[in-house]
Amino acid sequence: MKQKQQGFFERFFELSKYNTNVKTEILAGITTFITIAYILIIIPMTVSEPLRILGQDAYATKVSNGAFIATCIGAFIGTFLVAVYAKLPFAQAPGMGLSAFFAYTVMLVMGYTYSQALVIVFLSGAIFIIITAIGLREAIIRAIPNCIKDAMTPGIGLFITIIGLKSANIVVDNPATLVSMIDFSQWQNPEFDTQLIMSATVALIGLIIIGVLNAKKVKGSILIGIVIATLIGVPLGVTKFDAFDLNLATKFHDFYEVSLFKLDFVGLFAGEDLIHNIFIVFMLVVSFSLVNMFDSLGTLLGAAKQANMIDENGEVIRMKQALMSDAISTLTGALVGAPTVTTLVESSAGIAEGGRTGLTALTTSMLFIAAIICAPFVSIIPAAATAPALIYVGVLMLSNVKDVDFSDITNAIPAFITITFMPFTYSIANGIAMGLISFCLLKLFTGKIKDIKLLTAVVSVIFALRYVLISLG
């Protein structure tokens, strides 16, 4: 390590210890941000969409504006905590799956308001802080069987791959087969949306560029690939410059009016049947808590293993600090108006670019704040340009499937379920949950009950009850 790098960042983040440097960490942080910047557009749209469906367009616009500022602030708080407290290269922000549950299940189907839904997120954050402080979340991680832990990294690899394939329109809906590849032969059909084909083309070109650059050991290959794919998308009509309107004065006004500290505790429990209301809220809090917990655990374990950030006990280094950062950001995110803030799987893109310390996360957190002003520039980057990064990282993470023990069928089936359920149910939490449940059942009915830890069984039962009760609710 050169002497000039022995400054504050070197001392605080111990760059030499992790064989990295300031330039690599900053490039990795930028890569992470660019890869996940789509949430700055998608989260506000998702949160406000139920209100538009209900015909509350004016209020929906206010919520969208407020949620945009809240998303930036919530992501900054969570990622900054990971940077300076946990000193790990992970980014945190409102997750897509939990945001969709927040909007379409809690708000649209169950009829709770935006302010009431934020209370549910706040309560799940409070629970997170308590169970993290007493070490329960760490204990749960230790209770996860090795076969499932080994399956998490390849499972997450497939999960982020399908996210990339879907966002680039390479994989599309098919009523006969559920999914299929985009039909490239339709590119001259006037009745077909050829922009879908152009998007898929840009993504495939970007993937080849990233692969070639990486094979030639070019530093910043993922970031360079994203930039080149963005430029290629200009003549093909994929990269658009009609950025969404960003009237900061209006957005901050709406943020203060509808999002910041606007949690409606009284309205959440109002109604004639108080006991029923409490039960429903309790089940929702449990649902948010379980999904967020296992999404975060899966991401931390999977990405950390890929980056060799696992200690001698097989645990993520500074795991408790990372989990506490997650817990605090969930609670504070709700206070500013953001859906559940969680550790994002797309952090793997920055890790693949060489990010190994909190300096990567610090860079990403600063960009989240800058995005409040620079959002139009961020929105220029199309999903087709960032999708190759996710697919490429999926390749790297899937290689860890070699660590899975398939010799014992009672371990192989839970591992296989964990790997396949993550992409096919579009949820890391579902993969882990079904893996745990199948593990316990297989061990129980094959006379290997000693392989089941008490906490493993308890978590499996809770997950099973969660599926049953939510379906009944």
From TrEMBL:
Record's keyword terms, sorted: Cell membrane, Membrane, Transmembrane, Transmembrane helix, Transport
Bilayer topology annotation: Multi-pass membrane protein
Pfam families recorded: Xan_ur_permease (PF00860)
Location relative to the cell: Cell membrane
Chief site of localization: membrane
Top-level taxon in the UniProt lineage: Bacteria
Gene Ontology CC: plasma membrane
Transmembrane segment boundaries: 26-47, 67-86, 93-112, 118-140, 152-172, 192-213, 220-238, 274-294, 366-393, 413-442, 454-472
GO MF term set: purine nucleobase transmembrane transporter activity
Family: Belongs to the nucleobase:cation symporter-2 (NCS2) (TC 2.A.40) family. Azg-like subfamily.
Protein name listed in UniProt: AzgA family purine transporter
